[in-house]
Amino acid sequence: MKALKYGLLMVLVIVAASCGGKKEVVVPVHLSAGAEQTSKGMPFFDRGCYARALEHFYRAHELYTAVGDSRGTAMSMNNIGVVYRAMGEAGAAIPFFEDALRIYRGLGEPDRVRRTLSNLAAAQIDAGDTVSAGRNIDEALKIENRGKPFAPAMTVKGILLARQGDVKGAESMLKEALDDIDRRNPEGEAAANVAMGELLLRQARYKEAVPHFEKALESDRKAGFYRGIADDFAALGRCSAGLRDDAGAVKFWEQSVRIYALLGMEEKVRSTLGLLEEAAKRSNLNIDLTRTLAERWLKGEMTDSLCE
Q1: Nearest C-alpha neighbor of 149 from the set 158, 140, 160, 136
Q2: CB within 8 A of 307, min separation 6: which ones?
Q3: Going residue by residue through the chain (308 aa), what tens digit of pLDDT does each one get?
């Protein structure tokens, strides 16, 4: 399952009103250093370059901790947790979310408590602790959000229900999440569409799944989320294979393999390449160039890394 791409808190420019209009407040370097590291890490996270993002978020955490900035410390721990979960290391993510949650509760910030509870529950689902995940996501869903539901929390609830075998409940919850997402509030759109697509795929409802992965692909392209784009193509390949369209599957899996290779994700390259080779045999298509490029890029032989 593609990691839910939410929870990272953007750093805002600090401004203050004066008689002459707005002017930028001068913040001492040691107090702004954590925010600077967070800003440097965000573009790497957005591209799916998790190792590079983690370096900056850890540095931000150290700097916020050093000056006793509780909000910054909590934010950086939440960010570290999001990255670890995106890397498939839910066990490493959970302690960071738990500590961020403790701080946000102490600060009395319900919006951030709700967001962190959602992140924590998602990681607990990945780790197989559905009992704790259920308790945390239900708490998140009860927290007021200016009278509106919180789509990322509903997506996590839908994923939990699917994991528990409640397919109808999961589909209903994910539909509700998707209905709440619009152009003015697109947060979590890709994640909700992927979750719904995966739910439909598992039921062999391939045609119904396709539009959801296409919407996720559109969102991830706009965001420049390379890892997400590769995952979306991989999922569309699975849909095509399920519909017995091997040529279509080859088209999608070739694109997926190439992006995974550019990101240096060898395990993903190998697993997807195996599916690609079988579909290519069945459709009598030549994928030699994709193999060659993938091997070349996995060795680091490219004009420039996507993560530089």
Answers
A1: 140
A2: 44, 47, 49, 51, 52, 263, 264
A3: 444 443 443 322 222 233 445 555 555 676 788 999 999 999 999 888 999 999 999 999 999 999 999 999 999 999 999 999 999 999 999 999 999 999 999 999 999 999 999 999 999 999 999 999 999 999 999 997 766 778 899 999 999 999 999 999 999 999 999 998 866 556 689 999 999 999 999 999 999 999 999 999 999 999 899 999 999 999 999 999 999 999 999 999 999 999 999 999 999 999 999 999 999 999 999 999 999 999 999 998 988 788 87
